[in-house]
Amino acid sequence: MVPLLTCALLIVLAPAALAAPAPAAAPVRYVALGDSYAAGVGARPDPATGDCRRSTASYPALWAARHDPASFVSVACSGATSGEVVARQVRAVSADTTLVTITVGGNDTGFGPVLAACSTARDDETCLRAVRGAERAARWVAPGGLISTIVGVRLQAPGATILVLGYPRLFEPGADCDVPGVPNAVRREALNRAADTLDAALADAAGRFRGRFVDVRAAFAGHGICSADPWITPPPSSAPAVYHPTAQGYRDGYLPAFEAAATRP
């Protein structure tokens, strides 16, 4: 009789157990930190954001619009170095922040001046020398800056998920390119290699301090400058949008990579 009564009780209780609501998910409180790539400089920035040039088409704003977090603030700013992120932006993170994204490191390597050198130098060696200097900074300066940023976030919000979104390669590989003002194939290859060096250094630093690196290079493959469908703003577009992701680059490149990382356990 006892086994029969037990079975009967399970049959009666099972529907109720199955129907019990799942625990409500904790509200997401999201803060976006970083430089021009996080701000959305290449995607029609809002003039009201001044020199920071934040855009509603940036990856942080797109994610927030799609997922409707309990709170969202982006303090990403064009031209920001990691030191400036630590000094001016990390304070936006509070104890109840649950999600933080960071894109920083490009300005620590001299992103703008290196591109300018490679676009205007009369000889390849001048460009390659600038790239080598940027790669040294990518290996020895940018990781420390990212670590300081992550540590600052952890002090403010110890339990927050921290996603570090990297940088795409700027140019589609290959010798052919009919875009005016673009560096030659030798220089483009060197600049793409520098992006790889920076991403590798940032990924290693993020992993060491409980951040999760989000690699966007695969998402942008086939869509660099010189491709048939570029998601990076090519010259001769006016500064500062040039060499930054377009609105499509944020929507179809950064956003899917961000969403996949944010839902990963």
UniProtKB/TrEMBL annotation:
CDD domains on file: SEST_like
Domain SGNH hydrolase-type esterase: 32-251
Taxonomic superkingdom: Bacteria
Keywords from the named record: Hydrolase, Signal
Signal peptide limits: 1-19
E.C. number: 3.1.-.-
Molecular function terms, GO-annotated: hydrolase activity
UniProt xrefs under SUPFAM superfamilies: SGNH hydrolase (SSF52266)
Gene3D superfamilies registered for this protein in UniProt: SGNH hydrolase (3.40.50.1110)
PANTHER family: LIPASE 2, SGNH HYDROLASE-TYPE ESTERASE DOMAIN-CONTAINING PROTEIN
Protein's name according to its UniProt entry: SGNH/GDSL hydrolase family protein
Naturally occurring in which organism (per UniProt): Pseudonocardia tropica
